Amino acid sequence: MAKKTSFRSAAKQAALASQSLKLSSVRTEKNYEQALTGLTQFIQEQKLGDLRSLTKEKAERYLAMRSQEVGQKTLDLDRQAIQAVLGQNLEVIKSEKEQVLKSRAYTHAQVTMVANAQSEKNALATHIAESAGLRAHELLTLRPVTERPADTHRPYRDDRFTGRQHVAVYTVEGKGGLCREVILDKALAAKLEERRLDTPRTVFDREVRYESHYDIGGGQKWSNSFSAASKRTLGWSTGAHGLRHQYAQSRMNELQGSGYEYRQALTIVSEEMGHFRPDITEVYLR
Prior knowledge:
Integrase, Integrase-like_cat_sf, 5 strands, 286 residues, DNA polymerase, domain 1
């Protein structure tokens, strides 16, 4: 009963916040109220305070979680509502749900064919994305774990990457700024290090600023390169996000083949891919 009362209070708080925005229509006000109610519930569940203590970091963490549950239109509306309350712009995050619905896994042989039709730096990015299950923008954020450790505010299983040998550990910044560990085959890591920049360069991708330490493809430019090369070599493309499908499916096969039960394997793969819940990863297995 206490939980219900708490949520009603949170919903009222969100409604009051939306009314203070002087919105142009009743429908927009209602949509904003719904967006802020969801945010408030997230803040409560994560024990992050309330709307009055909302920060840019907390807001983007929420949007990153939402990006795996809703389409782009709803996600953009949530972002606009939160920006109005927060009084500052937030990162434009792409809906992963839409990418999942539109994509499917490539085979390793198909990925090799696509990479062979790309420039050297885009081909290397393709092999890295396939090997580590990276999002397009995460390629721009690669750093050795010795230079930038992963975030520790989320608990991780100790048996992540089970079955992968002769690897080098890196970190990437995922959605909502979450910094997590990823691994690369040492031979692939050696090729990456050959393309290390003497001075990091600033890259803008989808209006977001990244500091890139390697001369490899990434972001929308790499994604477009992958799709174009796929169409040239295979006659079709399901987009670069299909590489994350492949990673999820291949890792599930590896882990279950090593004796893990389905739910255990799913949890491990979810953490490796930077998802917030295993059921999001499950969609990649279709």
